[in-house]
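Contributing: when you submit paired examples, paste them exactly as shown. First protein:
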Amino acid sequence: MFVKLEGLYESKDTFRISHPRTYISIDISQVRQFYLETVSSRMGIACEFIPFDSTRIDQTIFIDERLTKQEQGQSFAHEVAHIRYHIGNQLILPISLSQWQEWCAHSFMLEFCVPRFMLEKCIQEHPDMHPIEMIVKKLNFTYEFALQRFRRYQMNLYQHTPLL
């Protein structure tokens, strides 16, 4: 099943947003431009910092101010997924549905923070660096995030490679 999102068809199953038009529509062409305040205002999402776990209420994202800047960006992307794709209060949803929403939001976060087209561009520009190292050092993400994002990239790459 596909839904139209800002001129781009995306699969509800994978939450792919790797198309450049999605980022061009909010004037983002490089991962280095991914600043919370900038992206949130361009997407029409209010963002506030609080001393509690990150969450969202309606079109407002509350980010845990105790997190590092890297973690705050990841948390923001995770909550964007909930705003764009999920309905309902997780406190009263069945556990399995709540877990599914969390898995989807995590998958979205990986792709939203470092979309495939940007990752591939960085890999081409830095062939001497391992992609995980490049995500950490050049794009300023945590090692754990970089590891998960590169594994996801490899998994998708291998899934779309024809077998001989």
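Second protein:
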Amino acid sequence: MSKESDKIKLAGENENPINSQATSALLNTEQETQADSSAELSDDTWAELRQDWQSQPYQKVDVQALLTQTRNRTFWAKFLLAINILATMTFIVVVIVLWMNNSQDKATISYLTFATIGSVVFVYYEIKIRLKAWKQISASPDLAIKNAIKGIESSINYIRLTKFSCWFLIPAGSWYVIEMAKQNDKSIWFGLIIMNVSVGVMWGITHLFHRKRKMELDKLTSSLSEHDTE
């Protein structure tokens, strides 16, 4: 009886290592399966996040390019301001010389006097527009978008001023062409066509720049608002 018990006991002891090994292998298999599932889930999640990020309407802004563009536009704005100031001073000198020499060309004196007054008013408002923007512009890269917006707003205001001045050039220029044609006994139509076409081309060019600057302003304003909401 004791011999049979010993056999059964030995058989049980021999079976335990096999069962332990099978159980361990089964657990390892389950862990590997769960790890693979987690890895696949993680990959799928990152793929969805990446696709969602790429589909966002956020517009990337090259800060360095924006800073360079703002500096260049500021330079050209100062250059144009200097040109306009120089032209205004030239008008003033010419009118003074004509008046001092008692010139009989009344049409030219009247037209240049009107042009001088208009040029002074134009430069006055141009200086106000430019200085307002330049005082608000900072050299900090963190404010690149805001600086660009201020520069574009200044450019738009200058363009509006230029377009507005065209409406004064048409009647004044037409009057001067007619008066000069009468003095020289020539047809008025050729001069009127040349003058009005020139003013129209100038207005058209400024209008194209106006539309372009408005598109740039809308783009930067949208980028700034998206950046602030993040």
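If you have annotations for the second protein, write them as plain sentences, like these:
Residues 66 and 144 are 7 Å apart (CA to CA).
Residues 1-20, 37-42, 49-59 have pLDDT under 50 and may be disordered.
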